[in-house]
Specification:
heterodimer, A: 112 residues, mainly beta, 6-stranded mixed β-sheet, 5-stranded antiparallel β-sheet, globular, B: 114 residues, 7-stranded mixed β-sheet, 11 strands
Protein backbone atom coordinates (compact mmCIF):
# COMPACT_ATOMS: atom_id res chain seq x y z
CA UNK A 1 0.00 0.00 0.00
CA UNK A 2 0.96 3.61 -0.30
CA UNK A 3 2.29 5.77 2.52
CA UNK A 4 3.62 9.32 2.42
CA UNK A 5 5.46 10.93 5.33
CA UNK A 6 6.48 14.50 6.12
CA UNK A 7 7.91 16.35 9.07
CA UNK A 8 5.22 18.35 10.84
CA UNK A 9 6.81 21.74 11.33
CA UNK A 10 9.52 23.98 9.88
CA UNK A 11 10.49 27.49 10.92
CA UNK A 12 12.71 29.72 8.80
CA UNK A 13 13.66 33.37 8.75
CA UNK A 14 12.47 35.63 5.96
CA UNK A 15 14.97 35.63 3.11
CA UNK A 16 16.38 32.21 3.94
CA UNK A 17 15.70 29.07 1.91
CA UNK A 18 13.17 26.51 3.11
CA UNK A 19 13.46 22.82 2.38
CA UNK A 20 10.43 20.64 2.99
CA UNK A 21 10.94 16.91 2.77
CA UNK A 22 8.69 14.00 1.95
CA UNK A 23 9.18 10.26 1.68
CA UNK A 24 6.88 7.89 -0.09
CA UNK A 25 6.69 4.14 -0.36
CA UNK A 26 5.09 3.37 -3.69
CA UNK A 27 7.74 3.00 -6.36
CA UNK A 28 5.14 2.99 -9.12
CA UNK A 29 4.12 6.59 -8.49
CA UNK A 30 3.67 8.42 -11.75
CA UNK A 31 3.35 12.01 -10.56
CA UNK A 32 4.38 13.64 -7.32
CA UNK A 33 2.87 16.93 -6.25
CA UNK A 34 3.33 19.77 -3.83
CA UNK A 35 0.19 21.53 -2.60
CA UNK A 36 -0.01 24.64 -0.43
CA UNK A 37 -2.82 25.38 1.99
CA UNK A 38 -3.15 28.88 3.40
CA UNK A 39 -5.43 29.51 6.39
CA UNK A 40 -9.10 29.24 5.44
CA UNK A 41 -8.30 28.33 1.85
CA UNK A 42 -8.32 25.17 -0.19
CA UNK A 43 -5.32 23.28 -1.46
CA UNK A 44 -3.43 25.05 -4.20
CA UNK A 45 -1.25 23.04 -6.55
CA UNK A 46 2.22 24.57 -6.47
CA UNK A 47 4.17 22.25 -8.70
CA UNK A 48 4.52 18.65 -9.72
CA UNK A 49 7.19 16.34 -11.04
CA UNK A 50 6.91 13.30 -13.21
CA UNK A 51 8.50 10.23 -11.73
CA UNK A 52 11.12 9.91 -14.46
CA UNK A 53 12.54 13.36 -13.65
CA UNK A 54 15.15 14.23 -11.04
CA UNK A 55 14.59 17.93 -10.70
CA UNK A 56 12.16 20.63 -11.69
CA UNK A 57 12.60 24.36 -11.16
CA UNK A 58 9.83 26.93 -11.28
CA UNK A 59 10.82 30.44 -10.23
CA UNK A 60 11.57 30.27 -6.48
CA UNK A 61 10.56 26.62 -6.25
CA UNK A 62 12.86 23.66 -6.85
CA UNK A 63 11.63 20.09 -6.61
CA UNK A 64 14.14 17.30 -6.20
CA UNK A 65 13.25 13.65 -6.61
CA UNK A 66 15.46 10.79 -5.44
CA UNK A 67 13.77 7.70 -6.77
CA UNK A 68 16.22 5.31 -5.17
CA UNK A 69 15.46 6.61 -1.69
CA UNK A 70 11.84 7.51 -2.54
CA UNK A 71 12.52 11.01 -1.29
CA UNK A 72 10.94 14.21 -2.57
CA UNK A 73 11.85 17.72 -1.48
CA UNK A 74 10.58 21.21 -2.11
CA UNK A 75 13.01 24.08 -1.81
CA UNK A 76 11.66 27.61 -1.58
CA UNK A 77 14.30 30.25 -2.25
CA UNK A 78 14.14 33.67 -0.56
CA UNK A 79 11.26 32.60 1.67
CA UNK A 80 8.70 35.34 2.33
CA UNK A 81 6.07 35.74 5.05
CA UNK A 82 3.45 34.99 2.41
CA UNK A 83 4.92 31.52 2.10
CA UNK A 84 3.70 30.66 5.60
CA UNK A 85 1.25 27.82 5.08
CA UNK A 86 0.88 24.05 5.27
CA UNK A 87 2.61 22.19 2.47
CA UNK A 88 1.41 18.75 1.43
CA UNK A 89 3.21 16.34 -0.81
CA UNK A 90 1.02 13.91 -2.71
CA UNK A 91 1.37 11.15 -5.22
CA UNK A 92 -0.65 9.39 -7.82
CA UNK A 93 0.38 5.92 -8.78
CA UNK A 94 -0.57 3.83 -11.74
CA UNK A 95 -2.74 1.44 -9.75
CA UNK A 96 -5.18 4.06 -8.59
CA UNK A 97 -5.46 6.47 -11.46
CA UNK A 98 -7.11 9.58 -10.06
CA UNK A 99 -6.70 9.01 -6.34
CA UNK A 100 -4.22 11.36 -4.66
CA UNK A 101 -2.33 10.04 -1.63
CA UNK A 102 -1.22 12.85 0.65
CA UNK A 103 1.33 13.25 3.38
CA UNK A 104 0.51 14.69 6.78
CA UNK A 105 1.51 18.20 5.78
CA UNK A 106 4.39 20.42 6.94
CA UNK A 107 3.54 23.70 8.59
CA UNK A 108 6.01 26.33 7.42
CA UNK A 109 6.40 29.34 9.68
CA UNK A 110 8.34 32.30 8.32
CA UNK A 111 9.67 34.71 10.90
CA UNK A 112 11.00 38.23 10.46
CA UNK B 1 -14.26 31.50 -13.51
CA UNK B 2 -15.60 30.38 -10.15
CA UNK B 3 -13.59 27.78 -8.30
CA UNK B 4 -14.80 24.80 -6.32
CA UNK B 5 -17.18 25.89 -3.58
CA UNK B 6 -18.24 24.04 -0.48
CA UNK B 7 -21.05 24.61 1.98
CA UNK B 8 -21.12 25.05 4.89
CA UNK B 9 -17.65 26.24 5.78
CA UNK B 10 -18.09 24.99 9.32
CA UNK B 11 -20.62 22.68 10.96
CA UNK B 12 -20.92 21.77 14.62
CA UNK B 13 -23.28 18.92 15.46
CA UNK B 14 -23.85 16.47 18.26
CA UNK B 15 -23.04 12.81 18.08
CA UNK B 16 -25.91 10.91 16.49
CA UNK B 17 -27.11 13.79 14.36
CA UNK B 18 -27.05 13.99 10.58
CA UNK B 19 -25.02 16.42 8.53
CA UNK B 20 -24.98 17.01 4.78
CA UNK B 21 -22.03 18.67 3.10
CA UNK B 22 -22.30 20.14 -0.36
CA UNK B 23 -19.73 20.65 -3.08
CA UNK B 24 -20.13 22.60 -6.30
CA UNK B 25 -17.34 21.74 -8.73
CA UNK B 26 -15.94 23.96 -11.43
CA UNK B 27 -18.42 24.12 -14.28
CA UNK B 28 -17.71 21.50 -16.91
CA UNK B 29 -15.61 19.30 -14.66
CA UNK B 30 -16.87 15.73 -14.93
CA UNK B 31 -14.60 14.44 -12.17
CA UNK B 32 -15.41 15.19 -8.55
CA UNK B 33 -13.53 13.95 -5.52
CA UNK B 34 -14.07 13.95 -1.78
CA UNK B 35 -11.16 13.87 0.68
CA UNK B 36 -10.96 14.18 4.45
CA UNK B 37 -8.33 15.38 6.89
CA UNK B 38 -8.84 14.14 10.42
CA UNK B 39 -7.10 15.56 13.51
CA UNK B 40 -4.12 17.06 11.69
CA UNK B 41 -3.29 13.80 9.99
CA UNK B 42 -2.87 13.17 6.30
CA UNK B 43 -5.57 14.04 3.82
CA UNK B 44 -7.30 10.82 2.82
CA UNK B 45 -9.24 10.04 -0.32
CA UNK B 46 -12.90 9.15 0.16
CA UNK B 47 -14.37 8.75 -3.30
CA UNK B 48 -14.37 9.81 -6.94
CA UNK B 49 -17.30 10.55 -9.22
CA UNK B 50 -17.22 10.68 -12.97
CA UNK B 51 -20.34 12.61 -13.83
CA UNK B 52 -23.02 10.97 -11.69
CA UNK B 53 -21.31 7.59 -11.38
CA UNK B 54 -19.09 6.49 -8.50
CA UNK B 55 -15.78 5.58 -10.11
CA UNK B 56 -13.97 4.69 -6.89
CA UNK B 57 -15.44 4.67 -3.40
CA UNK B 58 -12.68 2.67 -1.77
CA UNK B 59 -11.94 5.37 0.78
CA UNK B 60 -15.42 5.66 2.27
CA UNK B 61 -14.96 4.70 5.95
CA UNK B 62 -18.27 2.94 6.56
CA UNK B 63 -21.93 2.88 5.62
CA UNK B 64 -22.70 5.96 7.70
CA UNK B 65 -21.33 7.97 4.82
CA UNK B 66 -23.40 8.46 1.68
CA UNK B 67 -22.23 10.48 -1.30
CA UNK B 68 -24.42 11.45 -4.20
CA UNK B 69 -24.03 13.43 -7.39
CA UNK B 70 -27.43 13.47 -9.01
CA UNK B 71 -27.34 14.98 -12.48
CA UNK B 72 -23.58 15.02 -12.49
CA UNK B 73 -23.27 18.57 -11.18
CA UNK B 74 -23.00 19.28 -7.46
CA UNK B 75 -22.37 16.56 -4.92
CA UNK B 76 -23.50 15.96 -1.37
CA UNK B 77 -21.85 13.93 1.35
CA UNK B 78 -24.16 12.89 4.16
CA UNK B 79 -22.99 11.51 7.47
CA UNK B 80 -25.73 9.70 9.41
CA UNK B 81 -25.44 9.23 12.31
CA UNK B 82 -22.33 11.27 12.99
CA UNK B 83 -19.72 9.94 15.42
CA UNK B 84 -16.94 11.80 17.26
CA UNK B 85 -14.26 10.36 14.97
CA UNK B 86 -15.95 11.93 11.95
CA UNK B 87 -14.67 15.35 13.00
CA UNK B 88 -12.25 16.84 10.54
CA UNK B 89 -12.03 18.91 7.38
CA UNK B 90 -13.80 17.57 4.32
CA UNK B 91 -12.35 18.72 1.02
CA UNK B 92 -13.92 18.51 -2.37
CA UNK B 93 -11.96 18.72 -5.61
CA UNK B 94 -12.81 18.62 -9.28
CA UNK B 95 -10.96 18.06 -12.50
CA UNK B 96 -11.89 18.17 -16.16
CA UNK B 97 -10.28 14.83 -16.87
CA UNK B 98 -9.26 11.93 -14.68
CA UNK B 99 -5.88 10.32 -14.24
CA UNK B 100 -3.15 12.73 -13.21
CA UNK B 101 -5.09 15.78 -14.42
CA UNK B 102 -4.87 18.66 -11.92
CA UNK B 103 -7.48 18.52 -9.20
CA UNK B 104 -8.78 21.89 -8.04
CA UNK B 105 -9.70 21.96 -4.39
CA UNK B 106 -12.40 23.80 -2.51
CA UNK B 107 -11.79 25.51 0.86
CA UNK B 108 -13.16 22.57 2.81
CA UNK B 109 -15.91 22.10 5.36
CA UNK B 110 -14.76 21.83 8.96
CA UNK B 111 -17.02 19.32 10.74
CA UNK B 112 -17.00 19.16 14.52
CA UNK B 113 -18.95 16.37 16.20
CA UNK B 114 -19.47 16.90 19.93
Amino acid sequence: GEDVEQSLFLSVREGDSSVINCTYTDSSSTYLYWYKQEPGAGLQLLTYIFSNMDMKQDQRLTVLLNKKDKHLSLRIADTQTGDSAIYFCAEIYTGTASKLTFGTGTRLQVTL
Amino acid sequence: EAGVTQFPSHSVIEKGQTVTLRCDPISGHDNLYWYRRVMGKEIKFLLHFVKESKQDESGMPNNRFLAERTGGTYSTLKVQPAELEDSGVYFCASSQYGGANEQFFGPGTRLTVL
